[in-house]
From TrEMBL:
<protein>
    <recommendedName>
        <fullName>Queuosine 5'-phosphate N-glycosylase/hydrolase</fullName>
        <ecNumber>3.2.2.-</ecNumber>
    </recommendedName>
</protein>
<keyword id="KW-0378">Hydrolase</keyword>
<dbReference type="Pfam" id="PF10343">
    <property type="entry name" value="Q_salvage"/>
</dbReference>
<dbReference type="GO" id="GO:0006400">
    <property type="term" value="P:tRNA modification"/>
</dbReference>
<comment type="similarity">
    <text>Belongs to the QNG1 protein family.</text>
</comment>
<dbReference type="InterPro" id="IPR019438">
    <property type="entry name" value="Q_salvage"/>
</dbReference>
<comment type="function">
    <text>Catalyzes the hydrolysis of queuosine 5'-phosphate, releasing the nucleobase queuine (q). Is required for salvage of queuine from exogenous queuosine (Q) that is imported and then converted to queuosine 5'-phosphate intracellularly.</text>
</comment>
<dbReference type="GO" id="GO:0016787">
    <property type="term" value="F:hydrolase activity"/>
</dbReference>
Length: 415
């Protein structure tokens, strides 16, 4: 080799160290930044704090009750009003629902006077009033879940939407105009960018939950749930995230609900989960903030206090999720070690430890232990199921008159 030719091996080492000419590796996994923003808010919060001991205790209680109730994705479709079919109609229903899934709380102190939807012989309030109104509209052959309908100002007139949300009381649905605008905007964006169908948004996300959340926030202003905190942009994306979660739960992790990174979805920062986290002793308010909440005084959307409530709640559920998975791993270890003791198989024959371990992993119907645990193919409890469980539990407490603190009052289209 002549003196002026460089040693090829040395060249390659140099290229690698400089990252030159490297084949393009896989693209970085999409992320929403919601969880890291929540951590930032929690670390810098003044009026909201978390109690570690109560959070640990709450995790244990939540996990025990989730197991007792066999809480899983199947719980979603079990709700009386939720759609049961696993088809495009349900995808459209879930999109419509989560475009409008915000701000049902009433200014009425007399419960009997608050906005309510009469459907199937019952009066539905809160979130369920929305689901009932949509089901009732479909029963009346109003195509309320169709983006083409949302676009057509001669078909979806203000009067038609008022008919859809007609109340069983004198109080009307809050933020009616904003809800109409959410539908109009979504109809326009779907028509202009996604060939008129939300299914194309799901395809574009390539089975990534984070990518679908980001696609919704980037393309639809009414999903762009962000704020400024300490001079930094923070993301909550509550309705975009719950839309992905509702798809995942409704389709039980398959078909239009299949996401390989579903664990990237956080708790949904609404007005019910902070309430139950405070009731459980996990989320603590400063005396002035607690007084504002107890006196039902409005907390301005985008204010520092509101952002701290939402961010700290997301972080609190993350800590609960981590503790539940620690408990789960501990219980798995304990179960596995007990398998090294004498094992009798289903036919009462003593079998070797290795066989026992293998046999125990495939339960009678051929599913693995994990699939049997929560019915969606993984043993880990994620923030979605914890969140759904907490919301449903808070609604039971409300029904039984066992709220110990009101939920905070922020009138907002974000939650
Ligand atoms: N974080 C979180 N927020 C949730 C839900 C749900 C309902 N999800 C169903 C689907 C699966 C679950 O099993 C639930 O049955 C509604 N919300 C929010 O609460 C508020 C409505 O409160 P109220 O007016 O009292 O009904 C409003 O901001 C609404 O957006 C949830 O699950 N998580």
């Amino acid at each position: 080799m002549s003196d002026d030719e460089a040693d090829p091996e040395l060249l390659e080492l140099l290229r690698q160290s400089l990252g030159l000419g490297k084949k393009n590796g896989p693209p970085p996994a999409p992320e929403t930044k919601v969880l890291q923003n929540a951590r930032f808010i929690f670390d810098n919060a003044i009026d909201v704090a978390l109690d570690p001991r109560s959070t640990k205790a709450a995790a244990r209680t939540i996990w025990q009750q989730m197991q007792e109730k066999h809480y899983s994705t199947k719980s979603w479709s079990a709700h009386e009003l939720h759609p049961k079919s696993k088809d495009e109609g349900t995808v459209d229903f879930i999109l419509t629902m989560d475009l409008l899934n915000f701000s049902f709380w009433s200014d009425e102190t007399d419960e009997s006077k608050r906005f309510a939807i009469e459907y199937r012989g019952q009066k539905w309030t809160g979130y369920w009033s929305l689901v009932a109104a949509l089901q009732r509209a479909l029963d009346e052959d109003i195509p309320i879940t169709s983006p083409d309908f949302w676009l057509d100002e001669d078909a979806l007139t203000e009067d038609v939407l008022r008919h859809v949300f007609r109340s069983a009381t004198d109080e009307q649905i809050p933020l009616f105009e904003e809800r109409l605008e959410c539908l109009r905007e979504a109809g326009r964006v779907l028509d202009e960018k996604f060939d008129g169908s939300f299914i194309n948004c799901i395809y574009d996300a390539n089975q990534s939950a984070a990518a679908l959340v980001n696609l919704l926030a980037e393309n639809f202003a009414c999903f762009r749930d962000e704020a400024l905190f300490d001079g930094r942009k923070v993301r909550f994306y509550k309705r975009a995230q719950i839309l992905v979660a509702d798809l995942w739960a409704s389709f039980e992790g398959e078909s239009f609900g299949e996401f390989h990174d579903i664990e990237n979805i956080t708790m949904f920062a609404d007005y019910r989960i902070p309430q139950i986290l405070n009731q459980l002793g996990c989320l603590l308010y400063s005396p002035p903030l607690e007084s504002q909440i107890r006196r039902l005084q409005p907390i301005e959307g985008g204010s520092t206090r509101e952002i701290e409530i939402r961010g700290a709640s997301i972080w609190c559920v993350e800590l609960i999720r981590q503790e539940i998975n620690r408990l789960h791993s501990e219980s798995q270890t304990a179960t596995n070690s007990s398998r090294h003791s004498l094992d009798i198989d289903r036919n009462g024959q003593q079998i070797s430890n290795l066989e026992a371990k293998t046999a125990a992993m495939t339960i009678s119907d051929g599913k693995t232990q994990d699939e049997n645990e929560n019915g969606n193919g993984n043993s880990r409890v994620n923030a979605i199921l914890i969140d759904f469980f907490l919301y449903d539990t808070m609604k039971e407490l409300e029904r039984d008159g066992r709220e110990t603190i009101p939920h905070h009052r922020t009138r907002s289209i974000w939650y």
